[in-house]
Description:
The structure holds 2 protein chains of 2 kinds. By secondary structure, chain A is α/β, with parallel strands linked by helices. In chain A, 43% of the residues lie in helices and 24% in strands. In chain A, helix 4 crosses helix 5 and helix 7 (179-196) packs parallel to helix 8 (207-213). Chain B has helices spanning 33-44, 62-73, 83-94, 108-146, 153-163, 168-190, 199-237, 240-246, 251-290, 294-304, 307-334, 339-370; strands spanning 13-18, 21-28, 51-60, 77-79. The A-B interface holds A 1-3, 7, 37-38, 72-73, 86, 99, 102, 104, 111, 114-118, 121, 123-132, 137-141, 145, 161, 163-164, 166, 195-198 and B 1-4, 7, 29-31, 33-34, 37, 61-63, 66, 70, 83-84, 87-88, 91-92, 95-103, 338, 340.
Amino acid sequence: MTARATTHSETILSASGIVNRFGRQVVHDKIDLDLKRGEILGIAGGSGSGKSVLLKTLTGLHRPNGGKVVVDGEPIDKIEPAQKAALIGVLFQQGALFSSLSVAQNVMLPLREYTDLAPGEQERITAMKLELAGLSPDSAVKFPSELSGGMVKRAALARAIALDPRILFLDEPTSGLDPLTASGIDALILRLNQSLGITVVVVTHDLTTLFTICGRVAMLADRRITVGTLDKLMHSTQPWIREFLHGPRAEGALTASKRSHGNG
Amino acid sequence: MEEASPASASPAIAIDGEGDRWRISGSLDIRTLAQAEKALAPWLKRRKGRALDVSKLSALDTPGALFLCGLRAQGIELTGIRAEHKALLDLLGGLDLKPLAKPKTVSRGRQLIIDLGKAGDEAWHDTLDIITFVGKAASYTGRALTHLHALRLPSISRQIKETGIDALPIIGLMAVMISIVIGYQSVAQLRPYGGEDFTINLVAVSMLREMGVLITAIMVAGRSGSAFTAEIGVMKVREEIDALNVMGLDPMELLVVPRLIGLVITLPLLTFFADMMGLLGGAMISLSLLDVSPLQYIDRVHHAVDGSDLFVGLFKAPIFGFLIAIIGCMHGLRVSGSAESVGRETTRAVVKAIFVVIVLDALFSILFEKLDL
């Protein structure tokens, strides 16, 4: 897409000098991260390397011990709630769907709170979001407890894009899913990114996700971050990154991604 | 697509035109959609070949595009579509949108009957469950008492500490407060008849026979019964109960029996403590309202109550303790999968335990009256 290519150079979110520590344990030591408009950035790292904390910092849910996060030219903690809702959407790891609301009500909640559209219009928009997320209209009346793991992620994704956010944060979107469903979610993320132009930040362990959809990857290791395209990171000398990208699972995922690229 | 517009402070949309050709300009997104719909409404009513020029749209998001697709479906021609909007319009136009499924609605009268039936069925099953569980728990407890290796003494002592010793301050305070309440009311009611001295009898007898054990049981049901449900329920949610089963360990023996024995031991002791604190409260009332010195008070209490008053109160305590533990553990084991059900079962356990305690207490009052105790 041409629009995508031209907008890639522009920074939409920038984090600089992020320091996070819990007690004496330093998780992030002066991390800098720039997010380009329209890209899909993967954040990877070992368990306990602070991926989720970084996500919480970038979305303003966690105030870092040092450094600042600027989204669209404004510090994240100064952004008005309504503006923030239109700016960022988050898919939480467990979905975080409101258990007392049906799927449709979950997606409609931000619409109801932030717009004065007629109920019929809201329902049409909700149906469209569910369709975009790959859910059938029948699932609209279901409650989160009645959904399978993959459907929870799709419903949560529909809610995350309810207000057409400019940046979509995904926390482990494919964790706990079978490989087929996981590829479905990967394809969905790619489609949302390409057709709606949403900038995506995806925190994941899933090497296949990293290899198939992420343009750039930020690797968290040793309290620091290394950002680059996968090709560049493959040649990194940092021991953890080497091991991560050259382990047996990585080789498998790489072959798989090459094959899928070869096909289409 | 063109959400990538500069962050305009106030989203604005303008619609103008004449005849059949209208033009929409500005940003058509979720914030301006209602405004656009309203502005276009009169024009849409006219039924002729119409065209809408969208070339001046600076921003378009998915709800806006959906709206334009809707117009197109009504036979309105969209002219001057920008390249970056076309992809989005094509995407949404290509979606096969069906209306959302509606939840099935049931008429109110029907719903009432369904609810009644459900409640009746549930009450019946609850009763069966409690009876079954009482039998099961009693048999396991019997086994534990006869086979000493099945008796988990460290576990029991931990339960006694948690349900008994840790509860002393709150139960003592409650007992003093309740006896002060009874004392004040009695003095006020009995004074016109010159019988305020009988306040002491009233406080002492009602504390020993009824209030001491009742307050303690209700407090313990709220404090420990709920804790039993929550502890066992969380273990159930985290599959810890399944893990015990796989290891060949019986949750009844490991989790239920120690709690049961613990509470049967602690509740009478707590009741006795509450009785004493209640009498202490009575002494304070007597001193301040009736000018009866503590020594005189002891003498009066000695005459007012006899052993059977204390016995009647203490007799009920282990029974209440047994039932509170049974209900708490039973609901804990009933928790299914989700975290919400822990909350729901905990509420049910506490409500049921307090209900059972009060109903039984009323039955006991009648029974002891008939037995002349």
